[in-house]
Structures are given as structure tokens and as C-alpha cells.
Design brief:
mainly beta; 32% strand; 265 residues; 2 helices
Length: 265
């Protein structure tokens, strides 16, 4: 009975660690000013890519009705947040690859070498835009990603760790983009956008629309979590060593790949 209780404790503890989100302000709820006009990205922690040509958008219910940045009705369409009262919006396709916007944030802690991480975010195609695309994803780096500056192309070419493999076509509901990757170590910046040219991006038309050849997506509920330990029973048995068994005194617990030693009386 003592061992069962200990295993149950570790299952709960493991779930708690895995659910720790390294992305501050993941649902864009914290802001330093309420947006009123298009292109006002007044979000705490998040920032638009430096040296960029165009600006992402912030939409929040705090904006007055009938303004470009209101929720749910705004200049790009109509959508309720996936959670909370706000979300971001970025241009991801169109105008001969010259129309790109990216949002970026510094993680709460750098990533650990050779550790597995899971990324997730929810997106929705804005109503007024007719181009649904794949390739929308996340680039995680150890440096601040910068744009090409005035006169350059908005497109930032890179290989994101996670991206959508199929065109994201839903305008009514939120779609999840998720996946896992192994960190190289030291990564501490997360950038969201489309890092591929129009020619290298798959596109489908979604009716109705006002702008056929452009694609804009709402972004909400972003998370990055470390995958530490599976709660599968066989995995637990292989990673936990409990001894002596049986015992009437102390129980020692050793955790594989962990420097912790725990003794329970």
C-alpha cells in the first residue's frame, strides 16, 4: 500500500510538471493598452519581429464596439477567443510572399539540451481572407528573430520546429497546431508565422472572402511544455526504483535521469 501511494504521488507530480507552460501570457490576456486601430500590438511580453515592415494585430473585448480591434467583430472578421477575451492576428500569405507578419516572445526559461518539448497553439482563418494555407508554425531559437528591414521582403525564411502540414481552412472554429521536438539547448525565443514563400506553401480557397489571395490567421492559447516522464505504468516501472520492498522503516526512491534522492519513513 505504501508503494502504490508513492507511485500515485509521482503520477500527479509528473502531470503537474508537464503542464507547466514556458510561454508567458499565452492567451494574450495581459496588455499595456487597449487596442483601437489596426496594427496596435499592445500585448505584454509578446512583441512584433524587430526590423519588420508590417505589424501584427491585437484584438480584445476591451476595444470599443465597431472599432477595428474589437472582439468578436473586428476588421478581419468575426471570432470569439479560444479562451479569455483577446487574441492576436498575423498575415501569413499573399502579395508575392511580401505580406508576412510574425509575433515573438521570450520564454520563461531556456530549453534544456536533448529534452523533448511539446508545442501547441490554436488558430482560425479570418473571415475576410480567402487563402487557407499550411506551413503556419513556430520557430524556436536562441536569438531574437529579425525581419529584413525597409525595402526588403517581409518573408523570414527558416525551418520551424512545428508547422501545419495541411491547409487550415476553418473560419468558424479554432484549429490546433501541435507537435513535439528535441531541443538543442539554450533556445529561449519563440516566433510564430509562415517561414515559407508563397511558392512553397500549399493554398486552397475558402469562401466567402474579400481578399482572395491573402491569408490572415487569428492566434490564441500558445503553449510550450517540457515532456519529462510518461505516466504509463511500464515507463514508471523502468524509471522509478523503490527499495527495499517490503519494508517497515524507510523507503528509498531513485528516479532515472534525475539527481533527486527521496527517503520516506
Amino acid at each position: 500500500m505504501k508503494i502504490f501511494t508513492i507511485l500515485l504521488f509521482f503520477i500527479v507530480a509528473t502531470n503537474t510538471v508537464v503542464s507547466q507552460n514556458l510561454v508567458p501570457n499565452p492567451s494574450f490576456e495581459e496588455y499595456y493598452d487597449c487596442p483601437y486601430y489596426q496594427g496596435e500590438f499592445y500585448v505584454d511580453f509578446w512583441f512584433e519581429t524587430p526590423n519588420s515592415i508590417s505589424s501584427p494585430d491585437y484584438y480584445n473585448d476591451c476595444s470599443p464596439d465597431d472599432t477595428p480591434s474589437d472582439v468578436p467583430e473586428n476588421i478581419a472578421g468575426s471570432q470569439y477567443p479560444y479562451e479569455g477575451e483577446g487574441y492576436a492576428g498575423i498575415q501569413c500569405y499573399g502579395n508575392d510572399s511580401g505580406r508576412r507578419e510574425y509575433i515573438e516572445i521570450q520564454l520563461s526559461t531556456p530549453l534544456i539540451e536533448n529534452q523533448e518539448y511539446e508545442f501547441s497553439m490554436y488558430v482560425s482563418l479570418a473571415d475576410r481572407f480567402g487563402s487557407a494555407i499550411n506551413n503556419l508554425g513556430v520557430l524556436i531559437t536562441d536569438y531574437i528573430v529579425e525581419g529584413n528591414g525597409p525595402g526588403g521582403a517581409n518573408l523570414i525564411e527558416a525551418n520551424p520546429q512545428i508547422k501545419a502540414e495541411s491547409p487550415l481552412t476553418d473560419k468558424d472554429n479554432w484549429m490546433q497546431i501541435t507537435g513535439t521536438f528535441i531541443a538543442e539547448g539554450g533556445e529561449e525565443y519563440l516566433t510564430i508565422g509562415n517561414f515559407f514563400s508563397d511558392e512553397d506553401t500549399e493554398r486552397v480557397t475558402v469562401w466567402p472572402y474579400d481578399f482572395l489571395n491573402w491569408g490572415k490567421y487569428y492566434i490564441d492559447s500558445v503553449s510550450l511544455t517540457q515532456v519529462i516522464l510518461s505516466t504509463n505504468e511500464n515507463t514508471l516501472k523502468s524509471q522509478l526504483k523503490i527499495y527495499p520492498n517490503p519494508t517497515n522503516d524507510f523507503i528509498n526512491i531513485e528516479i532515472a535521469n534525475n539527481n533527486s534522492n527521496i527517503a520516506i519513513k
